[in-house]
Amino acid sequence: MPSVSANPDSQTTIGRGWEHFPHDADVGILGHGATPAEAFEQAALALTGIVTDAEIAPSTRVGVTCEASDIELLLVEWLNAIIYEMAVRSMLFGRFEVKMTGTRLEAIMWGELIDQAKHLPASEPKGATYTALRVAQVSDGLWSAGCVIDV
Amino acid sequence: MDPARFTRIDETTWQIEPTGAMRVPGIIYAEEALIRAMDDKVYEQTANIATLPGIVKACYVMPDAHWGYGFPIGGVAAFDADDGGIVSAGGVGFDVSCGVRTMLTGLKVSDIESVQTSLADSLFSQIPAGLGSKGAITLDPLELVGMLQGGARWAIERGWGEARDLDRIEEGGQVAGAEPDHVSDRAKERQQREMGTLGSGNHYLEVQAVTEVFDKETAKDFGLKQEEVVVTIHCGSRGLGHQIGTEFLREMVTAAAEAGIALPDRELACAPIKSEVGQRYLGAMRAAINCALANREIIGHYARRVFGHFFPDVDLSLLFDVSHNTCNVETHEADGRSRELFVHRKGATRAFGPGHPDLPEALRKTGQPVLIGGSMGTGSYVLAGVATSEKKAFASACHGAGRAMSRHAALRKWSGRQIVDDLAERGILIRCPSARGVAEEAPGAYKDVGAVVLAAEEAGLARRVARLAPLICIKG
Questions:
Q1: Is the dihedral of CA B172, B173, B178, B181 positive or negative?
Q2: Domain count, chain B
Q3: Do A83 and B269 touch (CB under 8 A)?
Q4: What CATH superfamily is the domain A24-150?
Q5: CA of B55, closest CA in chain A: separation in Å?
Q6: DSSP state of B215
Q7: Record: contact A129-B133, CB cut-off 8 A
Q8: How many H helices and E strands in chain B?
Q9: Taking the mean position of all CA atoms in its chain, how far away is CA B313?
């Protein structure tokens, strides 16, 4: 079982939160929630958690939509969409609102421009991989979504 | 991994016998201790690659191997297009043409000591490093296409490099067959402001001292002298390569299914070389290789500029520039005949032996320099290609120390600040925008690079020429 990272959010709401799990070269992320959409939101926070532990101001709002042939591939699409927006806007995102209809996703994310002095960014995510990719209902009322991120 | 799972061919050759869907064996080159330390996933990933269509001879794995995605890091696999062979975006990786270059300064360690702190600060301020750093170069669409076609040659034409470098870069600094039209607008957009940036993670620029020479004659031919200073740069194709990897990985999942290829792991997504997707990927990937070659040439130029400020008479000359995430078309002997193969190296370095026709005249006698990055605390190595590597692993060698511990575990174990202080006491200056980034890259999180290169030498993949120890490390 992956070990839970030092993430206060993972302890504040029962059944909801995110964690990083170990991978030799890169970083595994997992989001948990009552619905797939919540698990996707938490996985997005885990993605941001690869870069920084700092708080991110919700100063700018960005909309994202993506689609895939199944829910696991949709997670990869979602994470790669965030990585792309981070890169081209030079931003970090700290709040996510995901709506899912089947394997189509619409999301709004809030964040701010990367500030090296404030965010002390560690590793840059290069892409979401299909390694350890899993989106599943792990128990009654709990969904998990995760994969390995290349950094 | 349990060594008992392998057929041991000799001291450093461990074979996974073909079973199930495996078309060829898997062969890992390493000492027993390194095999024991490897994750079982390396075994699984090696066996998975061996199932792919058109694979030739074996799936080879280098001594620094660790659990990757699809391919293990340290994996080498060659495919024959005429035999239904495939090209795999996962087999190249997201950071297309990530690689290393080493430049000679001719300076003594004692020349550096008096300016070490200001030199570290200047390099850190002049070379954009880390997420959120901004490159000084903005490319318009026309220039971007020129860069994707021209590689290091383009950078030199724009004044960010020197023409004499081209001989010392794989493919002469410009890989043929790049197709900028096959690179998406999104990938191009990600690269507009990223030329001349280091990136983050395990990427770095180091000022290093030559601390040990193993092969005097080759070291002399390479221009490496004990107690002299070199500059080594490790980075790749930045956002452009990442985006190309992301897009083609997705497309190849579908392409593989359409071609009837059963993937044991979706990350091994691939397409037949002789397919529209396969050809399109090759054109885009080669453009990304040129991007990485241009990027390292530009960063090398910045390093020259900073050194020129401190040492006006010093002339930094390029020893060599190698990539370790690529797919190259090469000619190799297989099954008693010369064949044109698509050689994937994922975290492995091409290592041509002496006399190879693709080496420049000056390196024909010695074999190709093989540059092995270690950790910021332990050191790096320069190796040289040997003739035996051709038969052992399509002329390939390891690429680094390889991680022994996840970033996650490293973060729990070390404090970045403490590492910076400890290394400073040992005379190694670290400059990094993030203390956490330093902790993730802690020297203790890596395998013993000395053991890895020794295993590579004993396995006949390359021979040790010199050991380098860091004096300054700029990390992203």
A1: negative
A2: 1
A3: no
A4: Archease domain (3.55.10.10)
A5: 22
A6: -
A7: no
A8: 16, 19
A9: 31
Domain, as residue range, for B117: 3-82+97-404+446-475
Nearest CA in chain A to B267: A130
* Secondary structure of residue A144 in the 3-state scheme: strand
Q: Please give the DSSP secondary-structure letter assigned to residue B403.
A: B
With CB atoms and an 8 Å threshold, state whether B440 touches A122: yes
- Give the span between the Cα atoms of B199 and B13, in whole angstroms: 35
B342: in domain = yes
Q: What is the mean pLDDT of residues B38-61?
A: 97
Residue A58 banded pLDDT, cuts 50, 70, 90: very high
Q: Which of B201, B359, B470, B182 is nearest to A127 (CA)?
A: B201
- Give the span between the Cα atoms of B428 and B401, in whole angstroms: 19
Strands B317-323 and B99-108 come out as antiparallel
B355 burial via Cβ count (<10 Å: 0-12, 13-18, 19+): exposed
Q: What is the mean pLDDT of residues B137-166?
A: 97
Taking contacts as CB-CB distances below 8 angstroms, the residues of chain A near B434 are: 116, 120-122
- pLDDT exceeds cutoff 70 at A54: yes
Among chain B residues, the shortest Cα distance to A126 is held by: B242
Which residues make Cβ contacts (< 8 Å) with residue B274, sequence separation at least 6?
B81
- CB contact (8 A) between residue A53 and residue B190: no
Given pLDDT bands bounded at 50, 70 and 90, which one contains residue A14? Answer: low
Burial (CB < 10 A; 0-12, 13-18, 19+), residue B452, is buried
Question: What is the residue whose two structure tokens read 């729990």?
Answer: B412
Residue B40 burial (C-beta neighbours within 10 Å; 0-12, 13-18, 19+): exposed
- List of chain A residues whose C-beta atoms are within 8 Å of the C-beta of residue B253: 73, 130
Can you tell me the distance from the alpha carbon of B441 to that of B436, in angstroms, rounded to the nearest whole number? 9
Helix (H) or strand (E) segment spanning residue B344: strand B337-346
**Coil, strand or helix at A21:** strand
Q: Are B175 and B151 in contact (CB under 8 A)?
A: yes
B408 touches chain A (CB under 8 A): yes
Q: By C-alpha distance, which of B382, B386, B322, B318 is closest to B349?
A: B322
Instruction: Answer whether A109's CB lies under 8 Å from A66's CB.
Output: no
- Please give the full DSSP string across B40-70, using - where no structure is assigned: HHHHHHHHHHTTSTTB-S-EEEEEEEEEEES
Query: Is residue B441 one of the residues assigned to a domain?
Result: no
Q: What is the mean pLDDT of residues B35-52?
A: 96
Is residue B422 included in any domain, yes or no?
Answer: no
| Active site amino acids of B | 399
Which string of b and e fits A15-32 if b means at least 16 CB within 10 Å? ebbbbbbbbbbbbbbbbb
Residues 6+ apart with CB under 8 A from B276: none
Count of beta carbons in the 10 Å neighbourhood of residue B328: 18
Contacts of B41 in chain A (CB under 8 A): 24
Q: Do residues A61 and A107 make contact, with C-beta atoms less than 8 angstroms apart?
A: no
Residue B391 inside a domain? The answer is yes
Report residue B351 as tokens.
Answer: 């290592």
